[in-house]
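Much of the work behind modern protein science is quiet bookkeeping, done one molecule at a time. The fold becomes a row of whole numbers, each drawn from a learned catalogue of backbone shapes. The protein below has been through that process, and both of its lines are reproduced in full.
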Amino acid sequence: MYNGDIMALRCPIVSVLGHVDHGKTSLLDRIRTTRVTTREAGGITQHIGASEIPIGTIKKVSKDLLNIFKADLSIPGILVIDTPGHEAFTSLRKRGGALADIAILVVDINEGFKPQTIEAINILKQCKTPFVVAANKLDKISGWNSINGPFITNFNEQKQHPNALTEFEIKLYENVIAPLNELGFEADVFSRVKDTTKTINVIPVSAMTGEGIPDLLIIIAGLAQKFLEQKLGLNVEGYAKGTVLEIKEEKGLGKTIDAIIYDGIAKAGDYIVIGNPDGVITSKVKALLKPKALDEMMDPRDKFKPSKQIVAATGVKISAPDLDMVIAGSPLRIVSKSEIESAKEEIVQEIEDFEITLDDEGIIIKADTMGSLEALATELRKKNVKIKKAEVGEINKKDVIEATSYAMSNPYNGAIIAFNTKVLNDAKVEIEKNDVKLFEDKIIYKLVEDYEDWIKEMEEALKSDELNKLTKPAILKILPNCIFRQKAPAVCGVEVLYGTLKVGSNLMLEDGKKVGYVKELRNNQQETIKEAKVGMQVPISIDGSLILGRHAKEEDILYVEVPEPEVRKFYHEYKSELRGDELEALNRYTELKQKVENNVFWGM
């Protein structure tokens, strides 16, 4: 589809990644002079947003640096994508690779790398996406005189105290450059970088004051143009390819689609071809609407403007009939009537590439968009969570019934994780009736953390339940002058020397002879109790063949009989759960059984 005579440069697509609270959206807010951060759940971006920054704005903000960097910018601007995390970056893709041309990795210069930072870099490496580092929160460095302007002109001894410059260099090296070196990257402050093909540019910035924003914009625009000119080539005769960000109900328009067009030309009156897990949807485009420059696609301040033609890369609102079944994250094409079938083939293949691999058993996950679903699945997979069912949509009664059946075979599978999606009333009723755990949140990492905490609680509860079912080991001594009844049942006073004596435990003598079971225990107030621990002296009723005075007498030792399979469980699974005296009781009992059975491996 490439025709060299009509190739133009499109906007490079720039993705912003980083740890959840290192200031990704705050940085964009400073560029756009918006306040998107305060509107997000938990102050953290949960959905993919897009903002178009025209080249005129970049030149205006960075005017003092154009001569310094000798930048001759010919790109039309940049399209910045703000992601809810590095996971969403992987779902923002086009056929054959990542959607982003270049990335900004945001790192708090004071806190340094976090696990999510390292994972984001690994994903960028896997996708072969070039990136720069925005070392944010420069204003938090002790003594730093931060300004709303270029970093490069503020980074000198005339503007900064020597101690502040020293502190900056220490934090820059320890928290940014050294970790990058450990991951195999050469890196330095952008003003010192001589070969951008070998060294990562680190741009110190402050989203709070605006320092470094001109430097960041000029570096991103310059690198995109220099290294990606061939990749940024746009075939102005090619049809539009894109990704659905969100479906919205707009007054006077009905259902509309917010989308990113990453290649080609979209024209009003053409046909939109969209994929979803159930197939392909085709509809005629009624209107293409664009947000104003610097406006945030997901939450614009101003009205959208109708356009007859949209050129990539850009965010666009699309109005067309029959969009009810479209889900966010779906691939789309905008084509002429004659190109519909070839577009459908592309879409089908892209959907097959997207599908989440399911397990034979596992939990149910639901989300509001395909991108969110994939991001959630990716996070859960990292924790080795098995997924039986993964769908976009609301939680319904069928989901709960299925989760209930999963729990019957494995209690850990009786869970539904729902990201930013509704729970229908019939599902709520079903949840109350069944043993299903529902996790709801608008923050992905919080959902994963809550699920992990629940698993730990379940493990402890199941372990405790199984442990309580095992026969606790104990060794008893018949107290002198405390034989109250000789037989049927025998009643005497005993002291628990080691372990925990429970009602129902079978007892044996030192020669291995079984003598009956503990029918009843009482305390010193003659109240019935269920167990007696080490050191307690209690009256005990023994139902069985024991005749006190004949089979056992005062000062004799009795052992709780623990079945061999349970002894093995104690040693191999629950040894750490036993108190010291309980373990001593188990060890002595095992030694006795090995002697009686003439088998040194008994209980092992």
